[in-house]
Amino acid sequence: MDSQAQYESDDGMDEFMDKFTQQKYKGAFNEDNWEKEFDTIPMFMKKAPEEIDPQKHPDLACLQAIIHDDDRTPEEVAKSLKDEGNEYFKEKNYKKAIVSYTEGLKKKCGDTELNAILHTNRAAAHFHLGNMRSALNDATAAKKLKPDHLKALLRGAQCCMELHSYGEALQWCEEGLRLQPKDRKLQELRAAADKMKRTAERDARKAKAKEKKERTEREALLGAIQERGVKLLQPEKPPKRSSDSEDEDENRGVGSDMAGLNLDSLGSQEVGGSSVFLDEHGTLHWPLLFLYPEHRQTDFISAFSESTCFMDHLAVMFGEELPPWDTDRKYHPQNLQLYFEDYKTEQLHQVDLNIPLLKILQHDRFFVKQGTPSVIVLVKGSAFSQEFLSGKKVRRLK
């Protein structure tokens, strides 16, 4: 606030104070009769009236009710708290209604019907707040106290529907309809519960059948991989104890124990989350990654048949239209060389472009990592290729 604003604010306060001293405060005590008026305030009364009229002395009546609350029976207090909760409920203040009903139940009065109503009403408040489990617990407590309490049975059925416990909802409805066979709400709830129960059972059967089918397909897929001798890199295991054999340490992470294979290591990390699958003819199709280290580019084939040769794909990828990153226009199929790397020795193995993928997968030094086989693509005789291969031991695979 600047100095001018502060000045104006101070001027306004001075004007208000001047006005305050010149005018009388409305509702103030009468100067001539202030002692008598002061005596009407409960805190300053010298003597309380013999009979307290709530209309004349509302504050005193309220204080007296608080002071003498212990004089009332638990049933009276519980009923008063129930009425208070009902008022909050009408105002849709469900949280305060729950507090009032709870306090009423704490009085542990001997009126079974009143306690049942308190539970039922609290169940309704919980229901409107979305606390379905608490609402169901209250409905159950009310039914236990008063088995023929129709509102409790209706509320219990509604809670079970919200909790998707359709079988239990049907039981609550049946109990209610035995008391009131023509109750429209219970009839509608029973029909809805029966329909939802049938739907849930049907969906469960479908899910079970789907799970069984998927399990059969997984077993067939793993069987096909095992039969071909393809080696998978499994997720890393915890370090072995010093007492374990060196052979086990040597093979850690390698799917040499085919009985222990699982599909967790077969999910591709590439776009689309493709993974190996077995078609109706018994042929495996793998997601495959072509790596172009010279340009830091990749090509991802989502379903590369194990019986397909590499040249078939390269002829399509580098046919009439070359990729935009090949500015020197040298990535023609006849100029390309393929390699795969031994993940342990980092030794390169050159791949004949005219052999099928399966022959690569079955090589004793080829391992499928993260479910996706990968090969390196270089341009034969290029400066980058010579530099990339320099110092590396290369074996040719035919």
Distance between the termini: 86 Å
**Overall shape:** elongated
Main sheet: strands, sense, barrel: 7 strands, mixed
| Share of β-strand residues | 5-15%
**Assembly category:** single chain
- Radius of gyration using CA atoms only: 42 Å
Structural class: alpha/beta
Domain Cns1/TTC4 wheel: 279-388
GO molecular function, one term: Hsp70 protein binding
Biased composition (Basic and acidic residues): 192-220
Region (Disordered): 192-265
Describe the protein in words.
The protein has 398 residues and is α/β, with parallel strands linked by helices. The protein is 49% helix and 11% strand. The protein is built from 14 helices and nine strands. Strands 2, 3, 4, 5, 6, 8 and 9 form a seven-stranded mixed β-sheet that branches. A hairpin with a 5-residue loop joins strand 2 and strand 3. The N and C termini lie far apart (86 Å). The N terminus is likely disordered. GO terms for molecular function: Hsp70 protein binding; Hsp90 protein binding. Pfam families: Wheel. Keywords: Repeat, TPR repeat. One of its GO terms (cellular component) is nucleus.
